């Protein structure tokens, strides 16, 4: 990165990008993803221009939000994260008390102007808060610090599970855990937690809702319920499998267009993509995702304080986790949880919040030089 | 590089973070590898399997055709019902080789004619390739079985069980009930296409046409998943179709059959009305035709046979045929003359065998060459004197003749709820000026008053005339629909009869004068029909015969040398009647094409129809009717 004086108006592209604190490799990859999303959704929605237009608007809002967040110096995030965290916990309580039930689950908060899911904010805020917590502490964390970080995760997760929204809860646990992991959580504790988690599975099982249990059962044996929950997985596997090496071609997928695939433009959009673009398309998408994550980890490695490192690394890994869980679910590798395909699935909050997290990454990366004296 | 501080070992933390990032990178690669392995497994290793399953996966939205409403006679006998039928369909999109090749191979199993093929191709062009197009409409059980055995060889071909229309009364009621047939382009232009999605048939004639909208119902839809060969695997969703209304007709099935049979081997038409509400008890046009032939698309051979038949079976003589009414019109003319006050019914008029008009040598002949002598109105009607009516017509004039004729509905469609009715002609000065661009000649008045010349009427109109007289001017519009029956609830809604505008005479006794004369036609020993109709009467019957001249021969009530006249030149025999006189239950018009004498040929048929109906009203055993007064060979009656 060339260093440019703040006062000079940018005259070149690189100057302009630096002026607006945009990380070009990340921005290019994200915009590619966003444009790809428009094409995929056009096909997946059965050529609905409304859906594409909606998604384009959200992409625009998300990119604008990303650039805005990139202007904010990283230490503001460190200082602000606990407060936003506190606010989001209050909002989550608010959702439980007076939330708007959609599809039998209370996830939405209607603020008059916008209706949004406070749980989406926590996805971003929890890793930041954990990172901020460890910022001034000596790492690797000691046990009580691990427990404190665990508590930071547990409070919103407990509230979100009540909604109930298992997918988001899982992602928040993942985000916080990644921060803990990068903070240097000892391997033996990791192993211990995995063991405890495995032991606690029956306990978790009995606390799951009927439909959540059903999803797990279906995952284990999709043929048991070919018309109900297993139908989604069976059909999405058919979609992916029938795509072959090169796919059936854009707009030529039959599974989604014949309405075999439910939620073909949201959680199951990957099946449409895989059907129409084949293995090479999937490789291309994974390459873009991999590049984004790699760039995020690079930013983390290049960053200069603990908060930035932990925040950048855990946000990057969370992004990958999103993608992996969604693709794994659609491919029948994981049970069905409500996780959208990052930057591709139709959905406003998810798109905007993901781009916001990259705004934080860009902020970390582009403010780097100024902290060096 | 920032330096270490007391609490944090920045160097160590940096190295720890690097190690963790590498670990994360490894985890990432492992997960990506796992994912790719899975995708590879699905898209490459098992591609063939999923490719097949994807092709097998077909969700079809099928239109559920509504069940067509049934048609019943007034006593609940089925006139049109739905029978199970199997049709062979091809979904072009699912055919693996070409459609042509599939048709060729199918031909070995199910006979597919060139006509089937061309019809199929015409239909296929108008149908999206993922929809089924019927190739053969009614398969025999044997063909169904043969196809089922070989089904696997024919992807995209399927048998669909459906219902086909069947007309149990066949030729007996073909002209009333009508038939359904394949929907054509022309039908499509005037129907609500949405209601006819997936429909193959539409009413083409008779009640099937006039009540098409009620009978058809509303289609539903069903989402089904099928495999590659098009066989339905399971149903995912359904919105049921709404069956069409069933109709109960005023038609008396037994009387309809009896009337058809009463015509014997002659062509003609019979219309029997219930004068108390205008309901059509029987409406026969002979010869009939087998309406079932039309349901699945009539073959060219059969159609040519019907079209080229000189007896014109498709022609509905009862309401399309326009015949000179002949002397059957005399009661109407008598009522007009009485109402206008121009004649005294008791005054006797000299009737020689002919009259001439002033300034003309032309002889307007009476059917009876010797004349009737001195007769009054009653005798003139009983004996059907033409000269009496010539003189009456000269007094009345064409304007009044037209006015009274029109009052009884002549020259206008009756408005019956059956399609393609003709209005007949009730001539007038205006009519002749408009149609012939000629003035009205006095001689034309003479032949009009005896129902000849330009004047024509349909048998239905004559039946309405009979019921007008029977009801002394308070008759009802003829109709065939008695009630509608909701197929779901079974609730029956009767249709209210519609009164015709009443014919008000200044003196009600005029009705009795004319009716009495019509009674005399049958009862009086000198009445024209007495010998043929008036023997062993169980009910007082009023009637009037008519013989309609076809060619320019002198009209003869009785043609002794009928057999010597070429068939096409023989006159039409007509008879109108109603009974019982004081409480009329049935009004009949009979037309026998080229039958000869009205009294001798049409009269006995009218008597048969009336007897048959009144006997059934009395609850007499419904045995086969036999010729009572007529010297006719015994007929084998068909079971009703």
UniProtKB/TrEMBL annotation, chain A:
Q: Which residues cross the membrane?
A: 24-44, 56-77, 83-105, 143-160, 166-183, 190-208, 278-298, 310-337, 343-364
The keyword Oxidoreductase is annotated on this UniProt entry: no
Determine if 4Fe-4S is one of this entry's keywords. no
An example of a Gene Ontology cellular component annotation for this protein is: cell division site
Gene Ontology biological process = cell division; cell wall organization; peptidoglycan biosynthetic process; regulation of cell shape
Enumerate the catalysed reactions. Answer: [GlcNAc-(1->4)-Mur2Ac(oyl-L-Ala-gamma-D-Glu-L-Lys-D-Ala-D-Ala)](n)-di-trans,octa-cis-undecaprenyl diphosphate + beta-D-GlcNAc-(1->4)-Mur2Ac(oyl-L-Ala-gamma-D-Glu-L-Lys-D-Ala-D-Ala)-di-trans,octa-cis-undecaprenyl diphosphate = [GlcNAc-(1->4)-Mur2Ac(oyl-L-Ala-gamma-D-Glu-L-Lys-D-Ala-D-Ala)](n+1)-di-trans,octa-cis-undecaprenyl diphosphate + di-trans,octa-cis-undecaprenyl diphosphate + H(+)
Question: Which InterPro entries did the record assign?
Answer: FtsW/RodA, RodA/MrdB
Tell me the membrane topology, using the record's own terms: Multi-pass membrane protein
GO MF terms here are: lipid-linked peptidoglycan transporter activity; peptidoglycan glycosyltransferase activity
As for family, the record states: Belongs to the SEDS family. MrdB/RodA subfamily.
Main function:
Peptidoglycan polymerase that is essential for cell wall elongation.
Q: What is this protein called?
A: Peptidoglycan glycosyltransferase MrdB
From which source organism is this entry? Salinisphaera japonica YTM-1
High-level lineage: Bacteria, Pseudomonadati, Pseudomonadota, Gammaproteobacteria, Salinisphaerales
Gene name as annotated: mrdB
UniProtKB/TrEMBL annotation, chain B:
Q: Which GO terms describe its cellular component?
A: plasma membrane
The UniProt record lists the EC number as 3.4.16.4
Q: Does the keyword Membrane apply?
A: yes
Q: Which reaction does it catalyse?
A: Preferential cleavage: (Ac)2-L-Lys-D-Ala-|-D-Ala. Also transpeptidation of peptidyl-alanyl moieties that are N-acyl substituents of D-alanine
The active site annotation covers 327
SUPFAM superfamilies of this UniProt entry?
Answer: beta-lactamase/transpeptidase-like (SSF56601), Penicillin binding protein dimerisation domain (SSF56519)
Instruction: Identify its membrane topology class.
Output: Single-pass membrane protein
**What this chain does, per the record?**
Catalyzes cross-linking of the peptidoglycan cell wall.
Q: What is this protein called?
A: Peptidoglycan D,D-transpeptidase MrdA
Species name for this entry? Salinisphaera japonica YTM-1
The record lists the lineage as: Bacteria, Pseudomonadati, Pseudomonadota, Gammaproteobacteria, Salinisphaerales
């Amino acid at each position: 990165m060339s260093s440019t004086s703040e006062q000079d108006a940018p005259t070149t592209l690189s100057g302009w990008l630096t002026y607006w604190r945009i990380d070009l490799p990340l921005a290019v990859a994200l915009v590619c993803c966003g444009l790809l999303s428009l094409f995929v959704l056009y096909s997946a929605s059965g050529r609905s221009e409304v859906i594409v237009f909606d998604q384009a608007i959200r992409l625009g809002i998300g990119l604008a939000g990303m650039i805005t967040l990139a202007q904010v110096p990283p230490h503001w995030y460190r200082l602000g994260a606990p407060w936003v965290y506190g606010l989001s916990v209050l909002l989550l309580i608010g959702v439980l008390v007076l939330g708007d039930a959609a599809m039998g689950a209370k996830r939405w908060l209607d603020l008059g102007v916008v209706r949004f899911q406070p749980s989406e904010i926590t996805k971003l805020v929890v890793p930041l808060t954990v990172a901020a917590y460890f910022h001034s502490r000596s790492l690797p964390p000691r046990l009580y610090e691990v427990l404190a970080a665990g508590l930071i995760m547990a409070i919103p997760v407990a509230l979100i599970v009540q909604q109930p929204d298992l997918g988001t809860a899982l992602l928040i646990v993942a985000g916080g855990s990644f921060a803990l992991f990068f903070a240097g959580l000892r391997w033996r504790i990791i192993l211990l937690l995995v063991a405890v988690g495995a032991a606690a599975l029956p306990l978790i099982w009995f606390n799951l809702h009927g439909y959540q249990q059903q999803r797990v059962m279906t995952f284990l044996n999709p043929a048991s319920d070919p018309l109900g929950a297993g139908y989604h997985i069976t059909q999405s596997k058919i979609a992916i499998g029938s795509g072959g090496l090169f796919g059936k071609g854009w707009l030529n997928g039959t599974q989604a267009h014949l309405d075999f695939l439910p939620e073909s433009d949201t959680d199951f959009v990957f099946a449409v993509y895989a059907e129409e673009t084949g293995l090479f398309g999937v490789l291309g998408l994974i390459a873009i995702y991999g590049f984004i994550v790699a760039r995020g980890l690079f930013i983390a490695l290049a960053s200069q304080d603990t908060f930035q490192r932990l925040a950048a690394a855990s946000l990057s890994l969370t992004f990958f986790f999103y993608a992996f869980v969604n693709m794994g679910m659609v491919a029948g590798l994981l049970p069905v949880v409500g996780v959208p395909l990052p930057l591709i699935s139709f959905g406003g909050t998810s798109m905007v919040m993901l781009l916001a997290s990259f705004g934080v990454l860009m902020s970390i990366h582009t403010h780097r030089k100024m902290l060096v004296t | 590089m920032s330096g270490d501080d007391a609490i944090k070992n920045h160097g160590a933390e940096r190295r720890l973070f690097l190690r963790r990032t590498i670990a994360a990178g490894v985890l990432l690669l492992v997960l990506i590898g796992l994912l790719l392995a899975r995708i590879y497994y699905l898209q490459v290793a098992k591609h063939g399997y999923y490719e097949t399953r994807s092709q097998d996966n077909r969700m079809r939205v099928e239109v559920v055709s509504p069940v067509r409403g049934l048609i019943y006679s007034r006593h609940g006998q089925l006139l049109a019902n739905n029978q199970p039928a199997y049709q062979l369909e091809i979904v072009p999109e699912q055919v693996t080789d070409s459609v042509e090749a599939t048709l060729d191979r199918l031909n070995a199993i199910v006979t597919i004619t060139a006509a089937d093929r061309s019809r199929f191709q015409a239909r296929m062009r108008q149908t999206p390739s993922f929809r089924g197009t019927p190739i053969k409409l009614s398969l025999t059980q044997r063909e169904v079985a043969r196809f089922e055995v070989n089904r696997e060889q024919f992807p995209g071909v399927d048998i669909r069980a459906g219902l086909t229309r069947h007309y149990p009364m066949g030729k007996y009621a073909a002209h009333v009930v009508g038939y359904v047939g394949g929907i054509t382009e022309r039908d499509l232009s005037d129907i609500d296409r949405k209601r006819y999605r997936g429909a193959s048939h539409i009413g083409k004639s008779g009640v099937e046409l006039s009540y098409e909208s009620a009978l058809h119902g509303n289609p539903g839809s069903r989402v089904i998943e099928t495999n590659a060969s098009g066989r339905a695997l399971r149903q995912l969703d359904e919105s049921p179709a709404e069956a069409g209304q069933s109709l109960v007709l005023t038609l008396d099935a037994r009387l309809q059959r009896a009337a058809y049979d009463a015509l014997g081997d002659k062509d003609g038409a019979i219309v029997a009305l219930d004068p108390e509400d205008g309901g059509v008890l029987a409406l026969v046009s002979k010869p009939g035709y087998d309406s079932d032939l039309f349901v699945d698309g009539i073959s060219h051979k059969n159609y040519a046979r019907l079209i080229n038949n000189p007896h014109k079976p498709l022609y509905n003589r009862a309401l399309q045929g326009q015949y000179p009414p002949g002397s059957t019109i005399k009661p109407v003319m008598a009522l007009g003359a009485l109402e206008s006050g121009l004649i005294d019914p008791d005054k006797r008029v000299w009737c020689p065998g002919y009259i001439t008009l002033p300034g003309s040598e032309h002889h307007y002949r009476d059917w009876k060459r010797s004349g009737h002598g001195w007769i009054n109105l009653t005798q003139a009607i009983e004996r059907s004197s033409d000269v009496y009516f010539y003189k009456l017509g000269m007094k009345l004039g064409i304007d009044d003749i037209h006015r009274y004729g029109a009052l009884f509905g002549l020259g206008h469609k009756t408005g019956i709820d059956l399609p393609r009715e003709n209005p007949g002609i009730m001539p007038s000065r205006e009519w002749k000026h408009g149609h012939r661009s000629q003035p009205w000649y006095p001689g034309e008045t003479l032949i009009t008053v005896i129902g000849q010349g330009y004047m024509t009427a349909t048998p239905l109109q004559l039946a309405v005339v009979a019921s007008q007289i029977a009801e002394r001017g308070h008759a009802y519009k003829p109709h065939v629909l008695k009630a509608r029956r909701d197929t779901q609830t079974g609730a029956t809604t009767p249709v209210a009869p519609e009164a015709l505008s009443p014919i008000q005479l200044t003196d009600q006794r005029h009705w009795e004068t004319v009716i009495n004369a019509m009674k005399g036609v049958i009862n009086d020993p000198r009445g024209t029909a007495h010998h043929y109709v008036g023997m062993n009467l169980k009910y007082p019957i009023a009637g009037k015969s008519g013989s309609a001249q076809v060619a320019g021969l002198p009209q003869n009530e009785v043609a002794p040398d009928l057999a010597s006249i070429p068939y096409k030149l023989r006159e039409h025999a007509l008879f109108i009647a109603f009974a019982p006189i004081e409480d009329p239950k049935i009004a009949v018009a009979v037309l026998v094409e080229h039958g000869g004498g009205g009294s001798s040929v049409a009269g006995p048929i009218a008597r048969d129809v009336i007897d048959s109906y009144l006997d059934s009203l009395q609850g007499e055993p419904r045995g086969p009717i036999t010729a009572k007064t007529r010297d006719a060979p015994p007929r084998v009656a068909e079971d009703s």
